[in-house]
User: What shape does this take?
Amino acid sequence: MRRFVILLLLAATPAPALAQTALPPAPYANRQLEDPALEAKATALMHTIRCLTCQSQSIADSDASMAADLRSIIRERIAAGEDPEAIRAWLIERYGDWISYKPTADPILWPLWAAPVLLLGAGGALAYGRMRRRKGGQA
Amino acid sequence: MNFKKRSLILWIPLAAYLVFLALASLGLNRDQQTVVQSRMIGKPVPPLDLPAAASSRPTLSTKEMADGKPRLLNIFASWCVPCIAEAPVLMQLARQGVPIDGVAIRDARADVDNFLTRHGNPYQRIGLDERSALQFYMGSSGVPETFVVDGKGVIRYQHIGVIGPQDVEMILEKLREAQS
Assistant: This one.
């Protein structure tokens, strides 16, 4: 019986043969950089770059082979001294704003940037109005 | 402030919520973007030297693509199932005299050789790209993909996914456009 259960479990595990490619992952796809400061920079960038294969995931979260390749490229470039924002710009040049989760200063996004200021202003005005009224009522 | 005006103001948050709900449901029902078009159309092919991916074809240096004649750059892989469906159509294009260069993504030479033996070899040169580097340079997001590159080495068109029999005319038209 136990043997049967083990067999069943084995049968239920996904076959690695279905993977997209037989090649081992790129050198820095799943390995951190030796320098923790550089690794932190690379990780921060990777969390804001969209995976091309699994479009709702960042490349930091995705297991797709293209995401792994891009992680390795990002780590290698940062290790070579490149600025994370330069790498982001390089990718946007090729794939458009779509590849980056970080909002840009594009005019279409101005309402997004203005929203916190407007909401804070509205809240402030509301609070000011109420406090003044209460004060007026007490006097 | 009179009572009536005040009770009207109380409805504002609900109205705002309903507007938000309408926008959110519209957004959820809109077609999600699934293909990412390259922004490299109209720009030169990035210079990359790739080693030979197959025993029977030379290496691919993208600089050599600017040889005065428009050609196709086909991104494929031996592990890519849709590429099998595309292979006969590429063979047909090659028979019609269209120069095709290939790039095998995350592949190994033995596997590429095997793939070409089984499904035909329409390529003049095949570069091996073990780490998808060319794809990132070209703004390509998957396999298979095909680029039309003109005689000056400028990217003129990107076809995402399989080139089916119904796409042959369109591809030939794009090649003609690239001639001018």
